[in-house]
Amino acid sequence: MVFDDAFLRKLEGLRLAVRRSISGRREGERLTKRRGGSADFTSHRSYTQGDEFRAIDWNLYGRLGQLYIKEFTREEALSVRLVIDTSASMASKFEFARRLGAALALVANQESPSIPLAELESLQLGGPFAVPNVPRGLAIIVSDLWDEGLRSQLLRLRTETAVIHVLSPDELEPPLSGKVKLVDAETGESCVRFVGDEERAEYRRLLGDHCAAWKKWCFDREINYLRCASSTPLEEVVQVYLREAGVLE
Amino acid sequence: MSFETPAAFWALASLALLVLFSLWRQAAARVTVPSLALWKKIPERNPPIRALRRPRWRFELLLQALAIAAAIAALAGPYRDIQKMQPRRVAIVFDTSARMRALHRLETAKLYAAVLCEEKLKGDEVTFYDALPAPRSTREFTPARWVDVHVDLEPLLAAARASSDHVVLFSDRPVEGAKLWLLGIKADNVGIVEFTATNDEVFIRLVNHGPAKPIPVELVAGTTTIRETIPAGQQVWFRKGDYSKADSLRVSLGVTDSFPMDNVVEATRLADLATTVSVNGILDPQLLKALRSIPGVTLRTGTGPAKVAIGVDAAPGPGDFRVWLIPPAAGPPGVVQMTTHPLTADLEQRGKELVLGELPPGDRGGEPLIRVDGKVAAALRGRELRLCIDVNQWGKSLASLPIFCANVVDFARSGASGFAVLRTGRPLLLPPGTTLQKAPEGVPADLSPDGLLIAHTVGDYALQTPAGPRTLRANLLDERESDTAGVDRPLEWDPAQPAGRIPKRDDFGGWAAGAALLLLLLAWIMQLRTE
């Protein structure tokens, strides 16, 4: 994966956008809900057993006679997990997905080197695909979303999540006509259909419904959703669509 | 390019059926999609008629059409004529029998054959067949020689037919299954066909294929010469006398005809005549009479010592040559086959007279001489002969009995008795120790180690016998050889006519069939790949 200098310079000006306070393992630029660390006071709260005595505001105790704990905010590095669908259905879009992932990784690594590019290089197409558990930070899923089981896997993620729905031009507008034996790339299952104008229109309608359903499902769960075609120039996707979708800022 | 069956091209109409069938059952194009989730929701429907109007182009359809076209072309039998005619396999058979020497007919036949090969059979594969006396064939034109015997043409023609498309026969005998060049001559031959000579009598039988006429005959017995004239129409002539002092007897006819080879016969004395014969067992009167009539034979009954001892349904007495005549057990007579041997001389045509049976197992050893239905009826073991025959039936005035008796006595005498008559093509047992000194030019004579002489050429043979040097003439005594009457007729088949030739052609039917198979295979592979 080679990006030209101009594109790399444009990436330098971008950063991943998060809507919620996130937490990471390393201290960094992001404010987290985790208290302590920095000198910025945020609030008081009642003392509970186990709190550090050092955090007790003794001045307030002197005035009020009750124990309160002083809380401070902490800046941490953003933890980003990039998940690229490697199932067989991604065959026509895999290269695009990898390049998109690489661009996002470069953006993320500007804050903290959390995504090794070598992992992206070594990704292989094929085999079962599952979303790994992401304990914290931001999870970016690049997939064609043909697997309905993906919904339950996304629900298990407790982190902020962005889904980039990639479709190939052949999926958006199938170049089929006549009697066709359609074979599922993943299961090998097949069915025979006569494809004419009516079938193509019906397919487009069903695909629209399918994408809309995913978009609504993501919206309802505060998941960023972006649909893009693999034929779209990567620069345009990064500069325009990902920013519009709120994945980058 | 021509076709044997051009009508086969009507079958090309089947290509239309192929296209229609292809439209009807168009194979679905195989397409891999990321997911069938949406396609499954689209209901399946039959293709509209308008879709059939635009058939999808398929390579396997083209291959199938080409395969059908190639198969039809193969059925049509494509070929290309070549100007050159295909060489024919022609066999030229020469009848080399003695009579072909009359009027130099064999030489004429050779000349005709040479012209035929040069002018009309050029480029053909010609094989020549003749008999000297065994059948032989050669691809090079070699002048056929003759043998002074009657040649059986059937083995020659069978061999020629087996390896040739056309068989041309040069002969004076019309036969089936050959293109005949008939070389007959006028019917004027007078010849001697039978000749016997004893110390008491000389006998000849004549044939005359010409008009009846008086025939002068001359008998030379040693220093005595007798000349007579046989009346017109008479076919036998004999002269009684005392010829015991003569070393040879020569009979010649004073005629001029087209075939002089059978005008002279000669007998030569090779051995002493005196022979004692004993008969034991059943004393059949006909048997005794036949033995008694043989010159020089002294007949005795019982088991006393004799040169020839015969036992009829009993063991013979002691003797130099012993003969068992064993009555057959049962059963009707069958097909009789005889081995050529001095003991069966002149019996070949008389097999039907013999009421034979199979020898008992213990008596079958030795050289089989006579077989009946393939079973051994007579066997010679050294100086012992065993013959399974019904003597009672045999003795009913049949000629084969005295012939057999004469053969037995001659054989027992270890050579030709008294006057020996040598016939071409027939074996003659010479006295032990006899050697052949000189033979006439022609096909070499055969002299076996056991003293059997077979001469193939008429003429004088110089022998050295224990009794001194002898000159033995080989005589042509064959009634068929004298039958030279015939019609001279050239070959009716014209080899130069195209009808007789098969034009040479290159056939492409096999290539077309092979191409059809290959195309079908390719179409099948393409179909598999598509599906």
Structure commentary:
Chain A is an alpha/beta fold and 249 residues long. Chain A has two domains: 5-13 and 78-244; 28-76, no CATH class. Chain A has helices spanning 5-12, 58-64, 94-111, 117-121, 150-156, 169-172, 197-220, 234-244; strands spanning 27-35, 41-46, 68-76, 80-84, 138-143, 160-167, 178-184, 190-195, 224-229. Chain A has a four-stranded parallel beta sheet, with helices on both faces. In chain A, β7 and β8 (190-195) form a beta hairpin. The model of chain A is unreliable at 23-28 and 30-38 (pLDDT under 50). By secondary structure, chain B is α+β, with helices and mostly antiparallel strands. Chain B has four domains: 2-83 and 508-530, no CATH class; 87-185 and 486-501, no CATH class; 190-271 and 422-482, Sandwich (Immunoglobulin-like); 275-412, Class I glutamine amidotransferase (GATase) domain (Rossmann fold, 3-Layer(aba) Sandwich). In chain B, 21% of the residues lie in helices and 33% in strands. Chain B has ten helices and 33 strands. In chain B, the strands form seven sheets. An eight-stranded mixed beta sheet of chain B has the order 17-16-18-19-23-22-21-20, covered by helices on one side. Chain B has a six-stranded mixed beta sheet with strand order 6-5-4-7-8-32, sandwiched between helices. Chain B has a five-stranded antiparallel beta sheet with strand order 12-11-14-15-24, with no helix packed on it. In chain B, α1 packs antiparallel against α3. The longest helix of chain B is centred in the last third of the chain and has 22 residues, at 509-530. Chain A binds chain B through residues 88-92, 144, 146, 148, 168, 170-171, 174, 176, 178-187, 189-194, 196, 199, 202-203, 206-207, 210, and chain B through 26-42, 44-48, 51, 56.
